[in-house]
Amino acid sequence: MSQAHENSQECKDGVLAGLAGGNGTEKSNSEKEKMDKNNNKFLIIPNNCEVCSSDIAPEDGKTIEPTTVEPASITSTKPSSLIHESTPEPTSSEMSTGLFSPSLDLRHSTFIEDENERESDMKPQTRYSDGSVRLRNPHIELMDQDILYHLALGSESHDLIEMFQDIKFVCIGGTPKRMEEFAYFIMREIGHKIPTGTQLLDISQYSYRYSMYKVGPVLSVSHGMGIPSVSILLHEVIKLMYHAKARDPVFFRIGTCGGIGIDGGNVIITEEALNSELKPYHEISVLGKKIRRPSKLDRRLREDLLSLAHEKDNAYDTVVGKTMCTDDFYEGQARLDGCICEYSEKEKMSYLCELNRNGVTNIEMESLAFAALTHHAGVRAAVVCVSLLDRLKGDQVLAAKEVLNEWQLRPQILIAQYIKKELGLIPIQRKSPILSSFPAIPCSCPHSTVMRVKSPRRMNMVQQESESYD
Amino acid sequence: MSQAHENSQECKDGVLAGLAGGNGTEKSNSEKEKMDKNNNKFLIIPNNCEVCSSDIAPEDGKTIEPTTVEPASITSTKPSSLIHESTPEPTSSEMSTGLFSPSLDLRHSTFIEDENERESDMKPQTRYSDGSVRLRNPHIELMDQDILYHLALGSESHDLIEMFQDIKFVCIGGTPKRMEEFAYFIMREIGHKIPTGTQLLDISQYSYRYSMYKVGPVLSVSHGMGIPSVSILLHEVIKLMYHAKARDPVFFRIGTCGGIGIDGGNVIITEEALNSELKPYHEISVLGKKIRRPSKLDRRLREDLLSLAHEKDNAYDTVVGKTMCTDDFYEGQARLDGCICEYSEKEKMSYLCELNRNGVTNIEMESLAFAALTHHAGVRAAVVCVSLLDRLKGDQVLAAKEVLNEWQLRPQILIAQYIKKELGLIPIQRKSPILSSFPAIPCSCPHSTVMRVKSPRRMNMVQQESESYD
Fold first, then answer.
1. Which of A342, A295, A395, A365 minimizes the C-alpha distance to B227?
2. Most exposed residue of A40, A54, A265, B368, measured as fewest CB within 10 angstroms of its CB?
3. Where is the composition biased (Polar residues) (chains A, B) (predicted)?
4. Could B229 and A225 be called an inter-chain contact, meaning their C-beta atoms sit closer than 8 Å?
5. Is there a binding annotation on residue A209?
6. Does residue B55 lie in a domain region?
7. B25 is a domain residue
8. Does residue A219 lie within any of the structural domains?
9. Which residues lie closer than 8 Å to A207 by C-beta, 6 or more apart?
10. Tens-place pLDDT, residues B244-297
């Protein structure tokens, strides 16, 4: 694989050709679109990568069958077994969806493929009759108190019903900063008001681990990096919803990712989270035994989000695709720029193109556990990420800070649209230049929202004047 | 298993009997000690757990052979294969320690068991002749610039040699707060001075992910929670050491953990990091293939730390033991208090006692990747954790905040002793009440150190007076 391939200039009609806007603000000419029966616009990922096709000779004499790559936005029910032909598919005895029983053997539960059947089957185990969250853990209600360590909250120290019963949407994302910004953003979007002289509080500040903000029915929480970190958070937030008697909360992960054949700036809604072997389950070790939980996300929620995304003619694309979730950012994602790299650029490119041919549209580090845990807990959930770069073109993110900041707003805008629709709010007329033009850096959060600004221009003048005086 | 067992009052002579101080400040009567040839004091973990022995009937007709449990402090070279007899041991072809080659097949590298042989073998690959860090990645030096995203540093944007060449010790731990406190603590310990009117800067503040502080030759960095988070940090910090041309830096993880038969407040130096199957390797997925890296820590460093710990008659014990590293805090560590729990208390206790009989002294979530990555990069490293509770007695940490804060200082004190010794510093006479009595909450970091306080008592009075005036 030549350096030129890395720069992707020579690759014309294959995966490397701009599937989406070059810098995220314009769509490329080579883009191919398709309309489905609902008039939703899909991008088609071509199957032939001219440059790489010769590099993907099957190893060890294995035959790799040609596959028809499905559009990124169409759900495939076919197992992605190309890369690891020898890896057995999970059998019904390996997938655990079993309910609690003191003598339960987790490895002999039944995995039900059909999503609707599954939902109705799960409901009595994960919801009380009034729709409030029920836990798949009979021990909790026997405990004197339940301390949610990593949130700095407790069932007996805090009135969790009073504080959190009205939560309808739980939005989680990587950094405390992004989730604080999202909290102020959603506050503005849904027109939620807090008293003059107040600002949002980081409810979990004394955990020193996650940051949590509450804006009316929306919880905005940071989850750190990687599956273990997001798992701890989800265990405790789902318990929080249980203690609070919140009804049918919907969970969103708002993130960033590396695109595979998807340029930086485009938005990807995860159809299915895959592990590093491209299998749609999360394997965890429980009491020394491996169990696998299907990493499913809510189909209806995904479709609603896609419809909303296509209501507007954005300067970027929103697609549905398969998301590979890894436990490592460098070697685990075939980067060349980790402190250790024991493969060549050619091997890296072959691997990434292989992912592309298997329908993988993006790579990140949390979706697998997020999907598996929420699914098993009976929580409707979706993952919406913005691509920071096309990994078929390089490893390091080179877009300017202002551009990256604007890109990171895009998943937030989509989630805000959904929340507003669910709350029955008429879309707010966007007078603020922040929302209408999606500027690079949102102005300082508390002031722009809490201060009830009539004129942002004059507010900036006042602030500047104020700063000038000693 | 009865609730009484959970509370551990009935279990007299087995694993549940206090192996160390009850509340971390006194040693229990049932403790058994042993001296080695260097007069280091070891704790012996008994093999017979009266309460649990009946609960560990082998499943599926497998025979579990009786084993002689080794003292937690003595290195065992035997594979811990009791729990997963069917899991094959890694073969030489599965362990990857291979050096870079464009056509390298990672699965056919050779795993060399002997530590000394391994060290001499690795040295040319991981060090230049002057002792500065060399990377197992030939791509980095071909790059125009190397952006260390998660540290907010870059090889061309920052003069990394000027900034970091003097680093000798890299200390990492979970939260930004703890590592800021450690930075001020080590500053005081090594007598490092910064100009009046300055305070330590969070060098990585604009990454919004990790916090990094530099105190002379010591780097203090937060690593978040879990293997993915610590892996990202290590990749970038090792690259930072490379760009800075730092010579032979030593890495420490300073953490907290759940003890197995080790009461809260006692300190554990990891002899070997084990995965959830009790195997001493970290399995990662690289280009879709599973590779295993031995999770070895530096033996000499561990022995030096243990000797230092036993130079003083602390009110708590310091032991060497095997650390199990998990990807999940709740189900992965057999807790009953996650949002999902599909096993009984009895099954949980059987599992924990099984861990105990296999020589596991503690459980945490980072040591495996920390050991594997540093070992493969040729970096000498150690893991020192304080136990927050004995998991054989419960799941939730119930010690008071002040007690927990004091416990968390204990690994820091040991690392500080090592650093001072390495720097050739005569142990500082500890006049400050902070160090002599290890109080619960260290006073506010910048003021107690940067202000060059003559009398802490009078400083507190001045601060109180000052606060009283409007």
1. A365
2. A54
3. 73-84
4. yes
5. yes
6. no
7. no
8. yes
9. A149, A150, A151, A152
10. 999 999 999 999 999 999 999 999 999 999 999 999 999 999 999 999 999 999
